[in-house]
Amino acid sequence: MKIDRIINMITILIKKQKVTSKELAEYFGVSVRTIQRDIDTLSMAGIPIYSEVGKKGGYKILEAYTFDKNFLNIDEANILIPFLKNLQQSVPSAELDSVFNKFSSLSKHNNDQKLVVKMNPLINEKSFKHILSQLTKARDEQLKITITYIDSEFEKTMRTINPYTLVMLGTTWYVYAFCKLRNDFRMFKLTRIVTCELLTEKFIVKDKPEPLPWDHLLDSGRDSTEIILEIDRALQGKLPEYFDFNNCKIKDNKIIVNLFYPVDEWLYSLLTGLIPHVKIIKPDWLRAEFINRLELSLEKNKL
């Protein structure tokens, strides 16, 4: 991955409203896969790039973050520096150090913080940074890597994977990779990777199946349930952190939330976090199961 190509790509995305991976590949004389990796790198740095699918699709920077087209003045450097610093801390690289220093030298007001980017604090952990760095190297050099992975049953499994894409969804990091054990593509949560060992054997690149997991809701393939919650207005200030505002209605001094979501451990965790301000209106079986879990917890915590 050439840093000068990354910087030039930022310039193109700023000056053009939309550009396809094919156009970028032809411009830089590289493969479409290389361009996709570069886009992943920019996204990892926090630069808000998103893709639109279809005949008129392509990559673009969110309009709210588009910089002045006269690239690059001091104010623009001040905007990019936090993103570069975040990527530099996540994936140490001599090239990134050089670019970060060049951008920093453009700014005369390094202490004038107009934008602060603070990612998941796990990124600062030594082991997490090591795993992220090794996965990045494996992806860029098409090397197989062996990981020790903690599954949903809290069991350790050894996996040999071929990393394709590093993905950040919300505040959670994943690696999208071909798993030899499952003989299929999988999303692996980085916080569940305990150890990793980079192998010398290269992998043959396969076409990734469409649609990609991050192009749609990860849970869209699972059965969803209509859920109605009644929440005290004491939590109204925090509700936008959990629910779509359009799904919330005020009724009789309560907030009614309508959801259509799979019932899983994440949902139960959310409901537990809303205690004592939440009541499950629908469905009845979900309310009964939630009460059962609360009773079991009370029993375990009796003095």
Automatic annotation (TrEMBL):
Coiled coil: none annotated. InterPro entries: CBASS_pafABC_assoc_protein, DeoR_HTH, HTH_11, PafC-like, WCX_dom, WH-like_DNA-bd_sf, WH_DNA-bd_sf, WYL_dom. GO terms for molecular function: DNA-binding transcription factor activity. Residues 2-57 form the HTH deoR-type domain. SUPFAM superfamilies: Winged helix' DNA-binding domain. Keywords: Transcription, Transcription regulation. It comes from the Bacteria. This is Transcriptional regulator DeoR family protein. It holds the Pfam family HTH_11.
